[in-house]
Design a protein that fits this description.
Length: about 900
Amino acid sequence: MSRRKLSLLLFAAVATGVAALTPAAVAAPSGPSIAATETEALPDTWFVQLTNRPAADGTSLAVLKAEKQAFRAAAAKAGVKFTERYAFDTLWNGLSVKASHADITKIRSLAGVTAVWPVAVVAAPPKGSSVAPELFTALAMTGADIAQSELGYTGDGVKVAVMDTGIDVDHPAFGGDGVARYDSPLFPSDRVAYGYDFVGDAFNADSTSPSYNPVPVPDDNPDDCGGHGTHVAGIIGANDATNGMKGVAPDVTFGAYRVFGCMGSTTTDIMIAAMERALADGMQVLNMSIGSAYQWPQYPTAAAADRLVNKRVVVVASIGNNGTNGLYAAGAPGLGSKVIGTASFDNTRIAQAAFSITPDDRLIGYNPATGAPPAPLSGTLPIAAPTPVTACPVLVDGHYVSPFIPGSLAGQAVLVDRGACSFYWKARFAQEAGAAAVIIANNTAGQLNPTVDPAGGAAFTPIPCPHADFPTCPAVAIPTVAILQADGNTIRTRLASAPVDLTWTNQTVSTVNPTGGLISSFSSYGLSPDLALKPDIGAPGGSIWSSYPLEKGKYASLSGTSMASPHVAGAVALLLQARPGTSVQSVRGILQNSADPKPWWGSPGLGLLDNVHRQGAGMLDIDDAILATTKIEPSKIAAGEGEAGPYTQTLKVVNSGPSAVTYDLSHVNALSTGGVITPSFYTSDAAVAFGTPSVTVPAKGTAYVDVTITPASGPQYGQYGGYVVFEPQGGGESYRVPYAGFVGDYQGIQVLTAGPVSSVPMPWLALLYGGSYYKLEGPTDWTFTMVGTDVPYLLMHFDHQSRMLRVEVFDQKGSSWQRAYDEQYLPRNSSGTGFFAFPLDGYTFAGKKILMLPDGNYYAKISVLKALGDAANPAHWETWTSPMFVIDRP
């Protein structure tokens, strides 16, 4: 990776918005502009990768430490100034450093430095709500209840690491005494016997947050003041008989590796430090309900996780909550080639707090919004359903205003619909009109868990907050709850004929989740950018009730692939207890062979299977996995590009049972998808042929079978998949192997596309001025002083991941001034309105030599190598040449 401040840019999805005001003293260009709202990674923080392979691959610690000393000495000799954060020897070889632009340029040129990667900021985990979905129904979805009650396995003797916000050691779910206190004197305990706090309470790596504090203050006590880690640990192994709370593997021993402060984000270098500590502590399983926006399996956290598996630790990670971002949206470390990347399915039942409505006191279950006060347990309010039903900002004479007249909703519970704008704006506008409560009805089937906290995770669309028309962002101070679409329709129907009152209650309703057992709407799509099959498997993660810090209410509901991953981690503990000789390298395959594919979320009644690149092998089925006597390897097939034609894979079938088994072979297709950021769905005509229609595997023996997959014929540039099925003659458990591939020529996907302003397509040569980027058409538009942000910017929208980005600079005579950027493994933008902004700071490089551009006229050439592209094939590159720009330093 480059020596430039790419960490500030790669993850900055800059959306369209209202053009910022420009200073009156200097007139800005009159051309097209777009607002610059960046969410930055930790400024100037980098992984510096060194030459030797890490200790996990066999290099001695003495050699690795000497290599780092040589790097430090060379840096000092070259006059490089940097702050060293972490040095890594075991799972990844290198350091993480904080350095200026100029110094990271020098670091890149030092001998022994092979790559520089941005240290990514990992977003804060979600907060819990008081809704009470039932954990036991989630256990039943995976067979964990049977593994406990009928097979007798509890995870006893297995050590499971939880990398997260810590674990509340005082909680009775983990053997605590139930006394709420922080930095508990009970650590280490019998249940939470290992752990470390890498960051301290105040740590927050999010540079856009008011509580930004990037300085870790570690200590020995990984107690939890955030909540997410305690919730995750509860899913894995809660054991609270008094409150009826039991996790997947209730007798595991925990290691708590705290990488988040009480609020805010962490960084990926801290994650690697925690991985190395978990290995040193002898953990057998590591759960990482954490992801990043970095979408390549080569990223350091994914590479380190793979090596952790090689060191006999099963690694389970969430695949990501980017379901609305389209295909290829899964993130590291879940993309690691040996990591069990986990998708989420919705829970089958949900127990919710409820209010009643007139005239028959019907109970309506609700989910409280994060960031709003809790709903009371008594009191009656009239319900109003004003227009517009979405309660979004309205544009009037060039300014945004509230859709409601002040005071018009005084004392009422206001019913609004999801959609068209952020939940925060709906609640805020109702509150400013005098509302006493807000009810948000979903606009589609399924549960809704909104966030309205303007300082703690609320999204802002269609305009940001603060905004010129709304310069402050007050908190929502009235109860705000979300209800099902059907319940919203019921209330509106009643309001059409008579007034309706709401009464808050202390009652709950247990309801069938309309989307129970289907893939969660937030669960990320694969495949991996290298066309590896991801995710690997799925588990319940939508609306899960689990333990929460005593100070925060003891139990709470959360949704996310963060909740699915610990179901799998707990299941791994059950498997390792039941089959202690199991190879760590084979654990994922055993789980995949017995998993159960689920129907398409869009219309489950059609009987079509959901995308393999969304659900992997399907729903975890741990009791069948424990009892399985057949193992099929490889346990998943990546068929690659369809342009290459049919793909043949030899499957190894191992029978550990006492009798020979004959399997009939067949296959079933899952749905295909087209597009990238906005997927569309298609039936598949992929075909699978077998070397033999059945295979007999002798007792305690092995057999082989060839499987040939003929790719689907469409949609163009789409993804297809399905399942090879092994059905035993005479009855018994079936086994499956998922397969997935790409339709056509993978390099046919366009990387550089128009972006947020289709009428003025990107790339742009741009000026950053007054909070907006302005498109420049030539040298007369602007003269750059190269002081501060007065530098040229190249704006690009990446519709797909890129294997390599090069930016070369030429003077007006066409003479090369070498490269400004030479980046590898770039992610794609998360939405059709996002783009990346790359500054040209006046420096280029040729090998290890650094050049400064003298004053003059220049242009830049962008070259993008497509994912899996051949650098020697010109057809695999996209190029763009900028207009001329002028540098004239003061």
